[in-house]
Amino acid sequence: MKYKDPKLPVEVRVMDLLQRMTLEEKIGQMTQIERVNATQKVMKKYFIGSVVSGGGSAPAKHASPNQWVQMTNKIQRASLATRLGIPMIYGIDALHGHNNVYKATIFPHNVALGVTRDPNLVKRIGAATALEVRATGIPYTFAPCIAVCRDPRWGRCYESYSEDNKIVQMMTEIIPGLQGDVPPNLKGTPYVAGKYA
């Protein structure tokens, strides 16, 4: 199958995969569900493309990083067992550290970090968060929130670094912290949270 051949151009692989997919598979791939609903049966039956652990969503009370890895691997195995073997994407709310994980490092929310006006600090926080997220087998976070909150009635103002767009822009240094610094030569360098493979 062309879509599984890494030597072929991405465009060729994508077109081949899309032509093979049923409407149900396409809908499933555009669907994200909460972790509590991501059973092996659901992943296989509905071809789910993405799973999220929102605030407070953990595999068990006081779950260890190993339990998180086992959970994400189990969900991934179900996705890979579908007709086309498309892997799911797992994401987690890690807006102020890996806050869903028991004994993980918790940092102040963005609104408090914005007050520091210290881009180097948020970059280090991003790196620490990435390390802890990857230790649980999760490849990406729903962070950071790079919003400029000017209306305190918005329920997520605490996720904004400031109502001042210049401060918010300074604090985007968390992104290279989460992803790792861009290498001088990008060719052949996969980009993953906090580490280059």
TrEMBL record:
GO MF annotation list: beta-glucosidase activity
Taxonomic superkingdom: Eukaryota
Keywords assigned by UniProt, alphabetized: Hydrolase
InterPro entries: Cellulose_Degrad_GH3 (IPR051915), GH (IPR017853), Glyco_hydro_3_N (IPR001764), Glyco_hydro_3_N_sf (IPR036962)
Gene3D superfamilies given in the database record: Glycoside hydrolase, family 3, N-terminal domain (3.20.20.300)
SUPFAM superfamilies: (Trans)glycosidases
Domain Glycoside hydrolase family 3 N-terminal: 22-181
Full protein name: Glycoside hydrolase family 3 N-terminal domain-containing protein
Annotated organism of origin: Punica granatum
